[in-house]
Amino acid sequence: MDFNFTDDIQFLRESVRKFVREQVEPSAMDIEEDDRIPDRIVSLSKDMGLFGLGIPEQYGGLGLDMVGKCAIYEELGKTHNGYTTLIGAHTGIGSVGIVDLGTEEQKEKYLPKMATGEWIGAFALTEPSAGSNAANLKTTAVRHGDRYVLNGSKHYITNAVDAHVFTVMAVTDREKGARGITSFIVEKDTPGFTVGAVERKMGLRGSHSAELFFDNMEVPTENVLGEEGNGYVNALKILANGRAGLAARNLGSCVRLLEHSLDYAHEREQFGQKIVDMQAVQHMLADISMQIEVLRSLTYRVAWMSDQKMRVVKEAAIAKLYASEVYNSVADLALQIHGGIGYMKDYPIERYYRDARITKIYEGTSEIQRNIIAGELKRDYAQKGL
């Protein structure tokens, strides 16, 4: 396994690091207060090609492999997580389905505009009755000639307010269960499609989630993504694909928390000495560093395996699960090191602490990841038994 970055990736990584430090980070508190990512930041992100990270070059994207994407995600994770989520959800689950499963006509229609950020992507699976139980969808799609008519709703959809292109899962044959679900590409301005009010969340300010409503919304058959009945399988593939990327974003946040903690520990004095010289603080810093290094190795190993077209169902679930556990642990330790000041909204530690919590829930809860891992262990054991 070779985790060394090419010269092009290294150059892009350093450019993104500089951009995050000089442009995004100074606006982090504004994003938090206004619940909005400044247009200037979004425009600059488009100019850098950040909306086209994984979209092939022939469609206007950067065409990065998973290791390359993770290198950039790690840098993006070092700033406001709301901004990072806008980019990550678009370049991950919001567009990867079209990249991997779309027809040539679909790719030519959607990917060029998604690569520039003119059209933002979103992934619409979750419903009030279908969260972890993703096969229990109520949204239906009934075929009438050359069109499907969709009725139902989705909720907690990341990028819903900003997106133009949605990958939507709906039931086309109830009797077939999970094999009766189909994926559709849906455009925001389609008649019968309504985006609900922005949902108020604990964290991820600036990243807007909302409900979606489909009222006799007609979608042409050419907008079926993959084959009819493969929507559930498609959804699992799309989510698994994004888990290494999410782990990399969490990794970046942990690295930034360590930087903040080291800075503060070298500045803060108690009992006549810098707290960095106190063993209790040193142990917390050591634990943070240890968890970061393990997470880095795991993240890039899974990314490399993905690039080699290896089966990574178990490994991707482990990466997502471990990354969320580490991020929450590191955020807690960083807040402890900072003490009272870390609990204040005027400082970034409090923000990271709140933002970390969602990582155990979205794109597959920690419990679901454990189910996947256990299922893969049973599968491997059964195959060895043969």
Topology record:
Layout: H1 7-24, H2 28-34, H3 39-47, H4 66-76, H5 81-91, H6 96-101, H7 104-116, E1 121-124, E2 140-144, E3 147-158, E4 165-171, E5 181-187, E6 193-198, E7 209-220, E8 224-225, H8 231-267, E9 269-270, E10 273-274, H9 279-307, H10 313-338, H11 348-357, H12 366-385
Parallel strand pairs: 1-4
Antiparallel strand pairs: 2-3, 3-7, 4-5, 5-8, 6-7, 9-10
Helix pairs in contact: 1-4, 4-8, 8-9, 8-10, 9-10, 10-11, 10-12
User: Could you say which overall geometry the principal axes of the C-alpha atoms support?
Assistant: globular
Structural class of the helix and strand makeup?
A: alpha+beta
The secondary-structure element order is HHHHHHHEEEEEEEEHEEHHHH
Number of strands: 10
Uncertain spans, ≥5 residues at pLDDT below 50? none
Report the portion of residues in β strands.
Answer: 15-25%
- What is the spatial order of strands in the main beta sheet? 1-4-5-8
Helical amount: 40-55%
Spatial extent as radius of gyration: 21 Å
Distance between termini? 29 Å
Q: Quote the average pLDDT.
A: 94
Described by strand count, sense and barrel closure, the largest sheet is: 4 strands, mixed
Q: Helix tally? A: 12
